[in-house]
Amino acid sequence: MSEEELHDHDRGLSFDLPTLARRRMLALGGGGLLAVAGCAAEASGGGGGSTSSPSAAATEADASCAAIPDETGGPYPADGSNGVNVLTESGIVRGDITSSFGSASGVAEGVPLTIELTVVDAASGCGAGLQGAAVYLWHCDRDGNYSLYSQGIENENYLRGVQETDASGLVTFTSVFPACYEGRWPHIHFEVYRSLDQATAARNALKTSQLALPEDVCDTVYDSDGYSRSVQSFARVSLDTDNVFSDGSTLQLATVTGEVSQGYVASLRLGV
């Protein structure tokens, strides 16, 4: 099956709970259990340089707080839902996801991108970050290919990693800017879990969603060396026509700062 045919399908991690009450809440699942987790103030993401798109991390509860929409994990999740499960591999818990781990040695090339995600409890107004949750993040490389699935990189596992949220609910990944491939707006996949111990299979995820990258930043990156394959694909798609983001992208559109020469920082608040 060709890369284009594969991409056509893409349309569309437990700390021990200290009380029995919390265990009962865990069994209930959903946003209710999250209200008991974490009480530190949420950290705000970002960096220097120019800024694009709406504010991603609030420092206190606000009226616009809402849970980020559930979205498809796509055909390349490597979370046990479609073949391979990288979540059970030693080494998956890491911040720098640019290189493969274990027996693989590949390195993803591209414009540097730091991804900062702050997990908050939407049910309590998004004012406190959730400590001890886990985020599994993955995305395509600068050629639009996914490790563990795409032809030629089936044995690589770069651009995939899991991080545990800190006292502010923050996780940070070091990566590269993803491509735009045919039919999809430039995006990053992620799953949120109650804890690292739970982040072993997609069935345990509290939330599966996607992050959208801002148009002006994408234009700039795709005009740089190594991203020529993205230019035409990006010209043929918009947030309004993308079948994941077309129903609204406000809660998924990251704030991005930086420049091509020094890299970018993408920040997003994840209400769960």
UniProtKB/TrEMBL annotation:
The keyword Disulfide bond does not apply. It holds the Pfam family Dioxygenase_C. Residues 106-184 form the Intradiol ring-cleavage dioxygenases domain. GO terms for molecular function: ferric iron binding; oxidoreductase activity, acting on single donors with incorporation of molecular oxygen, incorporation of two atoms of oxygen. SUPFAM superfamilies: Aromatic compound dioxygenase (SSF49482). Keywords: Dioxygenase, Oxidoreductase. Coiled coil: none annotated. PANTHER family: INTRADIOL RING-CLEAVAGE DIOXYGENASES DOMAIN-CONTAINING PROTEIN-RELATED (PTHR34315:SF1), PTHR34315. This is Intradiol ring-cleavage dioxygenase. It comes from Streptomyces hainanensis.
